[in-house]
Design goal:
- Helix content is 49%, strand content 5%.
- The chain is mainly alpha-helical.
- The chain has a 7-stranded antiparallel β-sheet, with helices on both faces.
- Strand 5 and strand 6 form a beta hairpin.
- Helix 15 crosses helix 16.
- It is globular.
- The two termini are 28 Å apart.
- The C terminus is likely disordered.
């Protein structure tokens, strides 16, 4: 249990309640839905007890128990649900706790700010009987409602009907008291960026208001605005993640930055992303006053040879070392390379010699004398026989493991490492591209099927070779087969083999990456895979995923399969409504996202106990304006509501305009908050 949960449980136990752990709370609403009738201004108490009553706590406990029994709040097994308030109706917990009374219980004396001022709601496990306690100025009220679920249904049905006049009034009310909307401004900005109803023209107005915007491929005009945006976090994230930056825009972005540290950061991003820059940008960065910027300039993709040579002769040794490590070593002439190999700085000499010995064998004597006793040398240099034999028997398993990946290692030494006592070394050998499948199968290693793995580079390089894919798909090594499954297209016989692979991750990778994945396998993977590695939405979004004939799954006991019935073109509104009341929250969430769901049911699902269902309902395009406005003005729900595609374009435009006004006030210092609205990365 978390610290907050532990404190809550301790408090309930002090109140004489036995917390019934390990039970899912089925059929109940979220706690705030139960608080609403308790704290409503129009609510009348079922029982009111004066604060100055003698034995106030005892009387409140007696009255609560009487009403709880009469209404059926306490079930046949003695259990009920409870939610306590901290400083208000929302409390500190977003979920109910299932409890049972012990012999010595005292709800009114413990569950409040002080004895005799209780603040809690209780609910029957089936969600149909409600009993809340709240303290007013002179009285303590007990509010009881039987047939609570029925009343909620009636309220949702009423909310689902809305006239044009009511909609217009709701949108007008949304923008009243603009200052009150500052507390939801972040949620609006982040939600509107992700709202498919927000046009590109309007979305551009969110630049500087939400970092979500910069992750999307943006039009050239918006990127241009971002390159000169006054906020550094905007420019920095643009350089880090935006896919649509031209070479000319990179030039304006980097060379327009006057702060040396920031210019260095932008150069790091350009180097890491391997982008092509303009000749002017390369030249200016190669002569930048900052040594660490010149260090990154040496890593830039497409750097002209004459500029790399200039950096290789730089006064700063870290820059010269960086010039050795890039891909342009072969572009340097013999004079420059010789100077680097004999550089007065040891770090430069090591970097140069590591590159030199990729082409010229490295002897053991040079290995010892030149300071190359590193894993990099073991893995990437051409090794003389004496050094290779030495490293194959090195006492450090890390050094032997590095050697195991050396592409030039003699076969007999590969065989030695294949029998290495260290598990990691043997596994490294097992993934070498030069092994026959018989050799690979003969290596003993452990493989965790649940471990995250990347595709082997050498297998990925063969994805367009059908014969290589056939051979490797039959490998005994699961990582090799997983790497094959990452191919975009595969021969039919390879697909058929991998679709029934004993390693489920092979099937998962095939579902995520291969356009030829078969429908039967996609449906099978859907039953157990609920996340995403590289292809959000797959396998369900795969073009081969079955769409017809899914109605037969409407009563499947597996909720993952059951919900697929809604994807069938012949599914009906009635099925959507039925699934909106399903016992499984994932099925209800799927129904809440279906545009055919009635507005009343969307309103009802806003009170679902599970946040994923609430969020899907808040994004339902047919949600009534009055309800949507209430969600937009509430911090906890504003983000999901701002993503609702049913928001009219004029409303979205006014929301963005208001966000810009608030931003301008912050920049002017009238609000006291000039920070950019930062969102978590999507």
């Amino acid at each position: 249990m978390t610290g907050g949960r532990e404190k809550l449980v301790e408090r309930l136990r002090r109140a004489g309640l036995d917390v019934v752990e390990g039970h899912r709370v089925e059929g109940a609403v979220r706690p705030w839905a139960a608080w609403r009738p308790v704290v409503s201004a129009t609510t009348a108490p079922t029982v009111a007890v004066r604060m100055d009553a003698p034995e106030l706590v005892a009387e409140l406990n007696r009255e609560w128990y009487r009403l709880a029994v009469e209404l059926g709040v306490i079930g046949a097994d003695g259990t009920f649900l409870i939610h306590t308030a901290g400083s208000g109706p929302g409390g500190t917990s977003k979920r109910w706790t299932r409890v049972r009374l012990t012999e010595r219980w005292d709800l009114a004396g413990v569950l409040g700010e002080r004895p005799g001022r209780p603040e809690f709601v209780t609910l029957s496990v089936d969600g149909d009987a409600l009993l809340g306690a709240t303290s007013e100025e002179y009285d303590v009220w007990l509010i009881a409602q039987d047939r609570f679920a029925e009343q909620r249904e009636a309220e949702a049905l009423a909310a689902g009907h809305e006239t044009a006049e009511e909609r217009a009034a709701a949108w007008e009310w949304l923008f009243r008291v603009p200052k009150a909307l500052r507390r939801v401004r972040d949620e609006w900005a982040h939600g509107l960026v992700l709202n498919r109803a927000t046009s590109e023209d309007l979305r551009a107005g969110l630049l500087g208001l939400s970092h979500h915007l910069l992750w999307r491929p943006l039009p050239a005009s918006v990127v241009e605005s971002a390159t000169v945006h006054p906020d550094w976090p905007v420019r920095a994230l643009l350089a880090e993640v935006q896919p649509n930056i031209t070479a000319e825009q990179w030039e304006r972005l980097i060379l327009g930055e006057q702060d040396p540290r920031r210019r260095w950061i932008l150069t790091v991003y350009a180097a890491d992303r391997r982008v092509e820059l303009t000749g002017t940008t390369y030249a200016r960065l190669a002569e930048d006053p900052s040594a660490r910027t010149r260090h990154e300039a040496a890593r830039l993709t497409g750097l002209p040879a004459h500029l790399l040579a200039l950096l290789a002769r730089d006064v700063d040794p870290s820059v010269r070392a960086s010039a050795c490590r890039g891909t342009g070593w072969s572009q340097l002439d013999d004079t420059v390379r010789s100077a680097l190999l004999d550089d007065p700085d040891s770090a430069v000499r090591v970097a140069a010699r590591l590159r030199h010995h990729r082409e010229h064998p490295l002897s053991r004597s040079a290995y010892d004398a030149e300071g190359l006793d590193t894993s990099d040398a073991a893995s990437s240099c051409r090794l003389a026989r004496d050094l290779a034999e030495h490293l194959a028997h090195h006492g450090d398993p890390g050094r032997r493991g590095a050697l195991a990946g050396n592409p030039w290692l003699d076969g007999d030494l590969v065989a030695v490492l294949a029998r290495d006592p260290d598990e990691g070394v043997r596994f490294a050998v097992s993934t070498r591209p030069d092994l026959s499948e018989e050799q690979r199968a003969g290596i003993v290693y452990d493989f965790d099927p649940g471990a995250y793995t990347n595709a082997l580079d050498w297998v990925s390089a063969l994805h367009d070779d059908p014969e290589a894919m056939r051979r490797l798909a039959a490998s005994s090594h699961p990582l090799v087969r997983r790497s094959v499954a990452r191919a975009e297209r595969l021969p039919p016989d390879v697909v058929a083999s991998l679709a029934h692979d004993e390693d489920r991750v092979v099937q998962l990778f095939l579902a995520e990456s291969c356009d030829d994945a078969p429908a039967e396998m996609l449906l099978r993977v859907w039953q157990w895979w609920t996340g995403s590695l590289s292809a959000p939405g797959r396998p369900r979004s795969h073009p081969n995923f079955p769409r017809r004939g899914l109605l037969r799954h409407a009563d499947d006991p597996n909720p993952r399969i059951r919900q697929l019935a809604l994807d069938d073109p012949e599914s009906t509104v009635e099925l959507v409504e039925r699934f909106s009341r399903d016992s499984d929250e994932e099925v209800r969430s799927r129904a809440a996202a279906d545009a055919r769901l009635t507005p009343a049911s969307a309103v009802r699902l806003l009170d679902d106990p599970y946040e994923q269902v609430q969020g899907a309902a808040a994004r339902h395009p047919r949600l009534p304006a009055r309800t949507l406005v209430r969600l937009l003005r509430t911090k906890d729900t504003a983000y999901a509501a701002a993503r609702n595609p049913g928001l009219p374009e004029p409303v979205i435009a006014r929301m963005i305009e208001l966000l810009q006004e608030i931003r301008a006030e912050a920049e002017a210092g009238t609000e006291g908050d000039a920070e950019i609205l930062v969102a978590p990365r999507p």
